[in-house]
Every structure is written in structure tokens, then in C-alpha cells.
Amino acid sequence: MTSVIESVGPAVSAGSTPARHPRPGAGRARKRAEIVLFVGPALLLFLGFVILPVLLAGVYSFYNLPQSFQWDDLADPERFVGFANYARALEDPAFIRSVGNNFLILSLSLLIQGPLAIGIALLLNRRLRGRGVLRLLIFVPYVLAEVIAGLSWKLLLQPQGGVNALLEALGLGAFTQNWLADPNIALWTMFAILTWKYVGFAILLMLAGLQGVPEELAEAAAIDGASWWQVQRHITIPLLGPTIRIWAFLSIIGALQLFDMVWVTTRGGPLNATSTMATYMVEKGQFGGQPGFGSAVAVILFLISLVVALVYQRFALRRDLAGSITRGVR
Amino acid sequence: MSVASPALGGTRTTGHDPVPRHRFDWGQPFIVLLALVIAAIAIGPVLYVFVGGFRTTADLNANPVGLPSPWTLDNWSAVLGSPRFWGNVASSMILAVGTTAGVVIVGVMAAFVIARYTFRGREGLYLLFAAGLMFPLTVAALPLTLLLRTLGLHGTFLGVIIPSIAFALPTTIIILVPFLRAIPDELEEAAAIDGTTRVGFFWRILLPLSMPGLVTVGVLAFVGSWNGYLLPLLVISTGTLPQELWPLPLGVTQFSTQYSQDTGAVLAYTSLSMIPALVFFLFAEKRIVGGLTGAVKG
């Protein structure tokens, strides 16, 4: 690394010396060259591997493509099917179920994980011996790969696995279930695993947000006779607003894109009880050999995410982000 | 963990209400209990997997909960002695290091220009990258695999690394631009007076000064790549690369399917797969937490 720094620095500055004074155009050309050279690689990668595939998804979605896709297939008028892929997806009960599952997970996350995390963060927001250790421990599930966490839970939740055995041992044998294989409860089980995985992150985010809430306000209110709950309700939580709204945004996006955990634990089953838009897409598009149809599903997923994100940004995030993206560059 | 002394506790708000007495008596032990419960729920399942790796499958089948009897190191030594496990680890390492290096180098170069050059289209450029946040990998996944096949990258490490870099760029640039912008113009002017070019300034002054930002971005890219599943699933699992060279998340999944009857071995394989991430996390905890909370605060 250092050798690169040493070699590039002087070489470049030496080359520039004559160009500095004579013609103003030379400096501009040089600047332009620098811009192209520095942004070029990022732009190329980004356009080629992010933007282009997303656009291609849009194109593919209008075709009936075979598994052994060739570019020629796009020129074959026989393969152009218009909106048929979209119609097929929107008429497939399995896909509708997937969309519903995504939104159920989304709502449950906001309604259960959020308040849970806020409550725990409020209670833990005090000097507590071992807080550092606690912080590390609640963050463990978040650091584990979703796949590895999912596999562990799959083992724990087997009929003969640890969870049922623990219930038996506690005398709660009546509550044992086939957690991931029973269509009636599989999605709830999935939500519980996701909560286990992500609530620690939410708690830490809230705790970080709480550090920005001045103590003086709460102290003043307490002196005026406000109860602990009144202080939290009227002072702390409103001041935590920006953190809560940003957490909710991340949570919404995460819920709509959900894939890894579902794929390794249930692969969307049983009977589509846990399938999501993303697992449906991979199932049909990649492993079902229908890239065109899968792409239509991807586009629907994209549009839903986009609309939800824009609506959310319009109504909830406006105050906090006020231009953090649009006005990021002064 | 023990109850914190009152001096350390949260009782400093008032001294004359019934409230503090109430909180002093019940609050503190309650909080500690709550903390213990949360910690137990968070790591209980992980511990179960770890301890389970020390049990024989027969023992596990006979009694799914409970401590190992007898403790056995067979599963662990089998995993640690298998080329397959180490191949998985090495593969994940290659992918993560390659992605991280690419993201940091390409990202900081682009962020440098966006942060410190004035030119027409600069805002558009920044917006373009920022908009990338709205383009999830999931949406691009299928065309991406077809594209990689055309480029001859399907089934290769580069086929995972290159798209991973591309998809990590938006976050990277959004984090780095404010960082690079915060370095005072006076420094640049002084450097210019001393005869340093903008590029020289970049290498000799900006890069060292923005090291904390680079580390944060690097850690995020590393963790993202290490934990990544969808891309390896589409690019590698359907290719010709042998299972011994699959990245860890893919390798663990495959192992647990293949040996689903041998629970002890699967638990050992899974728990050993957790260790690299946990160790890395211990070292990078501040960066991960800081990066995430910093990133979302914009």
C-alpha cells in the first residue's frame, strides 16, 4: 500500500508542474481526466452490475425465457409475452400469499419489535454494571449470518429438537409444536426467529438514540412531579422520534426483502405458509427455470418496495432526512 | 452480574418524592433481572448449538436438552480436521477480503471526487449512487446471474466479488462523502501552495485523515460479504465449484442437508461456522455499531 502511495504521489505531481501555468485549458483537461479516472471504476461497476441488471429485470419480465437463456431469445418475437408474466403472478394464489406474508411480517415488526425494543431500551438506559457485556450479548444474534442463525433455529425447532424438549422438561409438554412444519404457526415461528435475530439491533439503535436525549428535561419534569412513565411518554419518546422512524424504515425494507432466513429454514413452506416475494422469485425464476417470470416477480417486488419507501419517506421521514439524500451535496 | 450500587443506579433524578424510593427498591433488581433474561434469550440458542456440538448424536436423540453425557470432542475434531470446513472458511475469506478491498479502493476514489471536486453533474452523480440504496440485490439477482454467465463469471469467486462490490458502493459513498468533505479546505489550499496536486493531496493527506471512515466502511463490507447468501447461492451453488470451496453460509447449509441425520456433527459444523463472525465482531464491535448507527443517522 505504502509503495503505491509513494510512487503515485510524486509521479503525478511532477507531471503536473508544467501544466499548472500555461494554458487554462490544460488544467481543466487534467481535472476532467482525474474525475474520469477516479469515478470511472465505481461508476462502471455500479452501472454494469446494479443498474443494468435492474433494467434487464424490467426487460426480461416481458419475455417467456427458458432456463438456458441466450441473448437471442430477446429477439425472438415468439418469446415476447407482454404483461402475461405479471398477470400470471398476480393471479397465482401462492404469490398473493407471499405478498401477504411480507406485509404481515412488516406489520408485526413495527407493532411488536418496535415497542419491545423501545421499552427495553428505556429500561436499560441507565448506568448498569455489566452494560458493555450485555450490549455484546444482545448483539450476538445480529452478527451471525442469517443463514447460520436460521439453520440453528431449524435444528432447535424440529419436533425432537431443543425447544420442544425444553417445554417438556418444564412441564409444558402441552405446548410442544411442529414449529416450522405446521402451516398454521410456521409464519409466527418465523416472526419469532426474526425478532430474536433483529431486536438486539433495534435496542442498540434506540440506546444510541437515547444518548442524544438531554437528561435535564427529564430531571426537570421529575422534579415537577412527573412519574417515570409520564417522563418517558411526553419527553423521552418524542425526542427519540428520529431514531424510531429510521429504525422503522430499515425494518420495513428488511421485511419486504426477506429471503435468507426463510430459504434455509422452510424454503417458503409448508404450503406457502412462509413464502415471501423473494423466495417465490428465486423458486420460480432460478430453480424453476423461468427467468422471465422470476423477473416479473422481481419488478413487482421492486415497485412495492419503492412505493412503500416513498410513501414512508413522504409522511414519516420528511422531517429527519430533510434532504439528507437530495441535499447531501452542498 | 450483580446489582449495581445505588450510587451507580438511576436514582439521581430526585431526592424528595416517593418515586425514587419506589424505584430504588424495585427498579434496580428488576432491571438486572430483565437484562439477564434478555441476555439469556439472545445467546441461549447459540449456546445450545455450541454445547450440542460436544454431544453424540445418540445422546442428542435420547435427550435433546441437558448437558452432554459424555462430553465428546469427536464432532469438533472431525469438523476441524476436514478439508471441507477449512475450504469453506478460506472461500469466505477470499470473497470477504476481495470485496472489502474493492469496495474501499473504488469507493474512496469516487467519494473523493464527489466530495472535493466541483463539476457539472456532481450532484447527479451523488444522487445516482444514493438511489442505489433503493435497488436491492434481490431485484437484480436473476438478470445478474445471466449477465455473469455471459461474462464467463458464473460459478467463480469473481462472479460473487464484483457484484458485491457494486452493491456495497451506495452505502460506502454515502458514508465517505461527508467524511471527506469535513476535512477543511485550508488543508487543501496549504497543500496546493506547497505544490501538491489534488491527487497528491488525496494520497498523502486525505486518505490518512479519513482512515476511521474507511475502516467503518470496510468493516461493513466485510461483514456483509461474509454473511452473504443470495449471491453465492445463485452464482456458486449452481456452478461447477466443488462444495469444499463454497463460502461458509452455503457450505453450512449443504452440510446440514447432507448429514441431517447426524445432528451432533451438524451442530458442531454450525457452531464452528459462527466463530469467525463472532471473533471478528469482538474486534470490530465499535465500528459495526458505530457504522450502523452513524449510517442510519445520515
Automatic annotation (TrEMBL), chain A:
One of its GO terms (cellular component) is plasma membrane. It is a multi-pass membrane protein. It is found in: Cell membrane. InterPro entries: MetI-like, MetI-like_sf, UgpAE/MalFG_permease. The chain crosses the membrane at residues 35-63, 103-124, 136-156, 185-207, 246-264, 293-312. It holds the Pfam family BPD_transp_1. Its main location: membrane. CDD domains: TM_PBP2. One of its GO terms (biological process) is transmembrane transport. Residues 1-26 are annotated as: Disordered. Gene3D superfamilies: MetI-like. Residues 99-312 form the ABC transmembrane type-1 domain. Signal peptide: none annotated. Keywords: Cell membrane, Membrane, Transmembrane, Transmembrane helix, Transport. Belongs to the binding-protein-dependent transport system permease family. This is Raffinose/stachyose/melibiose transport system permease protein. It comes from Agromyces hippuratus.
TrEMBL record, chain B:
GO terms for cellular component: plasma membrane. The chain crosses the membrane at residues 30-51, 93-114, 126-148, 160-180, 201-223, 266-284. Gene3D superfamilies: MetI-like. Residues 89-284 form the ABC transmembrane type-1 domain. The keyword Transmembrane helix applies. CDD domains: TM_PBP2. Keywords: Cell membrane, Membrane, Transmembrane, Transmembrane helix, Transport. It comes from the Bacteria. Residues 1-20 are annotated as: Disordered. It is a multi-pass membrane protein. It is found in: Cell membrane. One of its GO terms (biological process) is transmembrane transport. Belongs to the binding-protein-dependent transport system permease family. This is Raffinose/stachyose/melibiose transport system permease protein. It comes from Agromyces hippuratus.
